[in-house]
Write the structure tokens for this entry.
Amino acid sequence: MKNTQPIGIFDSGVGGISVMSHIQSLLPNESLAYVADSLFAPYGLKSKDVILERSKTAIDYLIKKQSSKLIVVACNTATAAAIQELRHIYEIPIIGMEPAIKPATKATICKKVGILATNGTLESAKFSALLETYSGEIDFHTQPCPGLVELIEQGKINDLSINILIQKYLDPLIEKKVDTIVLGCTHYIFIRKLIKNQMGANVRIIDTGLAVAKQVKSELEKFSLTNKTNEKYYSIFTNSQNLKMEEIIRSMTTNLDFNYSYHSNWN
Ligand code: DGL
């Protein structure tokens, strides 16, 4: 294994690019290879078995074709469904996502926290166990958001339709008077501003991107895999059949301060 090999990152679609951006800022010497399984998005309502198969296909590509030295499952739904099995199958380190429940328990003042995630994440045993650990004096209100990932994948983050859907999902949380919202799906980071606008300026919105980037850094150090050279590149691969996908990704990543090559030919 060479330290110059890339970190492999995957998600059901574009959501994990938000995580990729945190990893790039914290670890600017590392090459990054990103796979969006857009053809099979969303994962949110798919079975555990299908998600495991898709995750294996993405990771096989990242290891065999892109020579990844470490994998980041930049998808809460795939982590909840398959991370244990994936860690058994592959020898290289695999890091997953987890809704930021612990930081939310520290951030909330009124002890009421709303969690936005996919059905798959919220219905998983892994999530129930996580919630169980932190419930007690905190009221957690979970809200599945079917339909949001699809609109984000279509690049409709400025459309009225997404605002209407967000309002529908936030109304119950506003009624419960939560003061903290956990973004338990990496796609939702792209609509953070819309959520903030509807919840109001005093509501805290928490995601896990930076925490995961820090975990990647410490795993690289632990396994002596940190790239000490300046040779690096960034690639984004999709299997989307949407001819506008490159345009959508470019529009979502205008604030990234790194250039990447785009490929629509994986798998
Ligand atoms: N970004 C994925 C997550 O974090 C989206 C899931 C989906 O495809 O439904 O859960």
The first helix runs from residue 17 to 26. The beta strands are 7-11, 32-36, 70-73, 94-95, 112-117, 139-144, 180-183, 204-206, 234-238, 261-263. Residues 10 and 35 are 5 Å apart (CA to CA). The two ends are 24 Å apart (CA to CA).
